[in-house]
Amino acid sequence: MICAVAACGDSGSSSASGSDTDAAASSGGTTGGGGSTGGGASDPTTGAGPTSGQSTTTDGGSATGGLSQGTTDATTTASPSTGEPDTTGGPPVDAVYDPDKDGPCSYGEIAANIKVGEASVPVVAYYPTDGPIAGPFPIVTVAHGFNIAPTQYTNYAKRLASHCYVALNVDHRGYIGQTVSHPAYAKQLLAAVDWATSEPTLGGIVDADNVGTTGHSLGGKISVLAAMYDARVKASITLDPVDGANMCPNMMACPDVSGMLPISIPLGYLGETSDSDGFMACAPAAENYTTFYAESASPALQVTVNGASHVSFVDDVGSCGLSCALCKQAMLDNQTVNALSRAFVVAFFGRYLRKNTGYDTYLTGAEAQARYVDMGLVSIESK
Question: Which domains occur in the chain, in start order?
């Protein structure tokens, strides 16, 4: 099946960022932070450790510690806070904060380029600097869709940081003109985790053995693949993941990830069906989120967003460019899809990284029913 560039493999003549030389990334524990490689997938790639560099800080928060040497830049930004949790009476870590709003933590920002083999992989980390929840904080990687800029997922990273996670927005390979290797892309996500565990500001606040992965389209696929490669990953929820291999040189470069399931961690999927058929479908039915969910073991969550298109999950479809323009037009507005998707992502990690059952109401319970199901926005399945 022919499919649009937003969902499929890499070919063409231009690169959106970084070096267009693809390289294998380091797996868990190679540059600090412990962890082990696990799952059920083969791991043919290796890589070098990260580089890091100079920093500055600005107002907001109370970040401490110097930044690593090289090309790192850090700023600290105050996040709006909702102030009061939805439930009270327990210790702060047990509080449930509305995932559809900014959380109680202010957060800072660190930008770096990490060296992974021959590739230079930009990473922007958003990390808690102050708030009622004490560290160490879980790490969550955010992976962009094929040929879509990582800035289209900044809303997700910032929302996670405001809820007291260390969110890593990773500009992994996955642009037109770059060598295709989905395993290498997945390893670049894990290399960002390695970097965070050894970066002076972040290393002392992260929970290196409590990692979540999220991503959109191709980024969703490699987020699940990363979970297979590294036992530090304890949960993954992805946004309309596509298990495509239409432009790939071989199945080693683009493995059938849904066919490699199940794995023994909680998995969640948000998706849509309007872009699942027709000429150049961006999320073909045979490769879309439903194929991942069908092969996932319990606990697993599937949220179908009614009226969304494949690219509705980005922060701003209007500024997304050609890759988004090639997908079908959505019936449901972009802002609504982006907002509810962020809420599900935060609630899922609250439930499964922080093991707080209070977030069940936002996933499958009364709040999810009232806010999304009763309004006709989504349908929800779980097992």
Answer: 73-79+97-382 (3.40.50.1820)
